[in-house]
């Protein structure tokens, strides 16, 4: 898209935002199985002109079946973490046999999905600072969720 000569005068950041907005609109319409009238109403609320709305709806209708097949293959719900295990690992020497004594954590997330498909566990290695950052972000997410449920 950025190489298209018709779009060379548009700021690349604005172009990326427009692309993301269009992709989000298409995915949400596919997820909701929205009909053309619902899509038209939504685009009218966004102040798009009739000609562009008609063009968008025509292209959406042409690709609707392929979009639904693609969305169906992705899955219906995100993975759910059922358990976490970790262990402390010390790297004593590096490849050049220099002593390093760097501790790191090996973390394994046991995950499952509501679909019947099996998923391998998610494993990663991190430093103590990275693990503390992850824990802090998880605490922030838990607080946000708690506040949202109290409203």
From TrEMBL:
Domain of life: Eukaryota
Pfam families for this protein: COMM_domain, COMM_HN
CDD domains in alphabetical order: Commd3
InterPro entries in UniProt: COMM (IPR017920), COMMD3 (IPR037355)
A single GO BP: sodium ion transport
Domain COMM: 80-149
Family named by the database record: Belongs to the COMM domain-containing protein 3 family.
The protein's name: COMM domain-containing protein 3
Biological classification of the source: Eukaryota, Metazoa, Chordata, Craniata, Vertebrata
């Amino acid at each position: 898209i950025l190489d298209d000569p018709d779009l060379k005068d548009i700021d690349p950041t604005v172009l990326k935002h427009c692309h993301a907005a269009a992709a989000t609109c298409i995915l949400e319409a596919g997820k909701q199985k929205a009909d053309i009238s619902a899509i038209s109403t939504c685009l009218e609320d966004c102040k798009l002109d009739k000609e562009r709305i008609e063009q968008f709806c025509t292209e959406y209708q042409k690709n609707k079946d392929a979009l639904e097949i693609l969305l169906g293959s992705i899955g219906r719900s995100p993975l759910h973490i059922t358990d976490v295990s970790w262990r402390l690992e010390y790297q004593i020497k590096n490849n050049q046999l220099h002593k390093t004594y760097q501790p790191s954590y090996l973390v394994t997330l046991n995950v499952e999905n509501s679909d019947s498909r099996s998923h391998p566990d998610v494993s990663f290695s991190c430093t103590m600072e990275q693990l503390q950052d992850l824990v802090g972000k998880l605490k922030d997410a838990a607080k946000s969720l708690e506040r949202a449920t109290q409203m």
